[in-house]
């Protein structure tokens, strides 16, 4: 059984998938940009997600949607740190911060966050790995081809599952060599980050191949474009597709699913667990 720890706290300790609720404090995220930009709105939204059953909250101050522009460190700090600081006193679930910047990560941990979710897999800011190592934070290491501005420009792989898995294996080995224990690392294959719809589906069908890396697996399919291509639904109409794809990922081995629609996801996990049992799919 894979275990994921963050600042001495067990985040994943059994096979029942954990639900990570998304709190975007950005004006331009693809699904809910602007909804939680104000501090009070962000806190209300986050507390609502916890009341719906979220096991983890993921706070992000910089959009990573395809074509997104970068945000400066001061602006990201202004958006994120007050939310983390207040949330850490209001909720008991672990708080993750979705950032690529060492300064944001360090101040977020000081404010009460325990997980750093880095879409660059600790390859962007050279100081970020040191922050993770020194603070004891858990980390999400994701695969992305290119940058948010370029990642969807004709992505190509000879074998997407093998190439993404091999990349994550190399990153985990490198991170472990820096003093970050494997049980503090969760891997994310990066659905929608430099992948076509078929690439995404191939990864989801073969997610069990990532389990050999010995890390917890996090998957985020929520409301993404490939679900729109499959269903013909607009972004805000993709709740059902998001839950089904996330549940499919969990059945294939995902330990954490990152979602917007927390209540529906929590219900789906409860029903699956009651009717099928995760021990039959582990």
Which secondary-structure class do the elements indicate?
Answer: alpha/beta
Question: Helix count?
Answer: 9
Using the CA coordinates, give the radius of gyration: 17 Å
Helix percentage range: 25-40%
Profile the largest sheet.
8 strands, parallel, barrel
Strand order of the largest sheet: 3-4-5-6-7-8-9-10
Order of helices and strands: EEEHEHEHEHEHEHEHHEH
CATH topology value: TIM Barrel
Beta-strand content estimate: 15-25%
The coarse silhouette is globular
Distance between the ends? 8 Å
Count of distinct structural domains? 1
CATH-level-2 architecture: Alpha-Beta Barrel
CATH homologous superfamily placement: Dihydropteroate synthase-like
Ranges with pLDDT <50 over ≥5 residues?
A: none
Give structural notes:
It is a single chain. With 282 residues, the chain is an alpha/beta fold. It has one domain: Alpha-Beta Barrel (TIM Barrel), CATH 3.20.20. Helix content is 39%, strand content 16%. It is built from nine helices and ten strands. The strands form two sheets. Strands 3-4-5-6-7-8-9-10 form an eight-stranded parallel β-barrel, surrounded by six helices. The mean pLDDT is 91.
């Amino acid at each position: 059984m894979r275990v994921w720890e963050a600042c001495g706290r067990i985040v994943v300790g059994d096979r029942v998938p954990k639900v990570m609720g998304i709190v975007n404090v950005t004006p331009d995220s693809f699904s809910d940009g602007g909804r939680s930009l104000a501090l009070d709105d962000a806190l209300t939204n986050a507390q609502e997600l916890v009341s719906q059953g979220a096991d983890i909250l993921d706070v992000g101050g910089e959009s990573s949607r395809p074509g997104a522009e970068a945000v400066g460190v001061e602006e990201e700090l202004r958006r994120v740190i007050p939310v983390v600081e207040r949330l850490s006193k209001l909720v008991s679930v672990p708080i993750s911060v979705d950032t690529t910047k060492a300064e944001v990560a360090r101040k977020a941990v000081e404010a009460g966050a325990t997980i750093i979710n880095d879409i660059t897999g600790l390859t962007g800011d050279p100081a970020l790995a040191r922050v993770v190592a020194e603070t004891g934070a858990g980390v999400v290491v994701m695969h992305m081809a290119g940058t948010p501005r370029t990642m969807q420009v004709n992505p190509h792989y000879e074998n997407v599952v093998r190439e993404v898995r091999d990349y994550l294996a190399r990153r985990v080995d490198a991170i472990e060599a820096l003093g970050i224990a494997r049980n503090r690392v969760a891997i994310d294959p990066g659905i929608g980050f430099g992948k076509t719809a078929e690439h995404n589906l191939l990864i989801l069908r073969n997610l069990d191949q990532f389990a050999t890396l010995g890390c917890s697996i996090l998957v985020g399919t929520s409301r993404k474009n490939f679900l729109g291509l499959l269903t013909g639904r607009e972004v805000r109409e993709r709740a059902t597709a998001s839950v089904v794809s996330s549940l499919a990922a969990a059945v294939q081995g995902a330990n954490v699913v990152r979602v917007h629609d927390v209540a529906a996801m929590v219900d789906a996990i409860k029903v699956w667990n009651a009717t099928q049992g995760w021990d039959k799919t582990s």
